[in-house]
Amino acid sequence: xxxxxxxxxxxxxxxxxxxxxxxxxxxxxxxxxxxxxxxxxxxxxxxxxxxxxxxxxxxxxxxxxxxxxxxxxxxxxxxxxxxxxxxxxxxxxxxxxxxxxxxxxxxxxxxxxxxxxxxxxxxxxxxxxxxxxxxxxxxxxxxxxxxxxxxxxxxxxxxxxxxxxxxxxxxxxxxxxxxxxxxxxxxxxxxxxxxxxxxxxxxxxxxxxxxxxxxxxxxxxxxxxxxxxxxxxxxxxxxxxxxxxxxxxxxxxxxxxxxxxxxxxxxxxxxxxxxxxxxxxxxxxxxxxxxxxxxxxxxxxxxxxxxxxxxxxxxxxxxxxxxxxxxxxxxxxxxxxxxxxxxx
Length: 344
Prior knowledge:
The chain is an alpha/beta fold. It is about 40% helix and about 15% strand. The strands form 2 sheets. Strands 2-1-3-4-5-6 form a 6-stranded parallel beta sheet, sandwiched between helices. A 6-stranded parallel beta sheet has the order 9-8-7-10-11-12, with helices on both faces. Helix 1 crosses helix 12, helix 2 (about 50-70) runs parallel beside helix 3 and helix 9 (about 260-265) crosses helix 11 (about 315-325).
């Protein structure tokens, strides 16, 4: 790798309290460094809300980024999340006279901005040399929102490793990993559970505003004894969770990419995903199924089909084979090649 220093700006990065918050950004930074790239990071890990607090934390992000750019003189700025990080990056790039590459993750693109915010965002995106989108769906949204943008698709990566046998025992288990929020669709999985075999269990990993209502809904559906709610699993233990389940369900209503689906495949576990955003691009027919969103019966049919192939090692092999196409180091090299091309 050539001598280059990259300044990464991001409004999401893992912290002790929120270890999964922006884990894909952390992985990309670690991969750059493993490739010999010098990386400075200015991140916002403050999840507090309220107009005054939001303004204050992005002012801190801007001040920190300017300070690092003056002290460290990066060759290029990579900014994750278009809104509002693109604005911070554009200002820093202008002051430091450095090129900018923006990374769009999905929900940060189509926010229906109006007035001054829309004008400033258009200026910020125009200031960038290129936009990296995490999926074809996100790329299409970038182009429709900011016509003329130079967009390339590079998904976030997963850590792939040597095959580990699943050795599934006990009743079949369907897993869910994600925020317990409406757009992630955990309620759709609960609605599908009564349609699955009677011995099937569901493990839901995540926290969020729907937590209590999901438990109540499970009781109403008379499946509470078949559902296990787990607040969180540390990032380093997620692969073990994936290997211990038969199928991962990702019934999202909205999704930029859907990293958990790629992570499950890397652990040899097939997935059933919604036909939204970047999710349909993750599995192939031999390791997953794409179903319409908000359709519990079709979700149940797809899950049941994979449960019938429980213990089929050819399925696990197909999952890992597909996941190799999302290998983090491979994708980090692609992302770095974009940065290189911009600085030449």
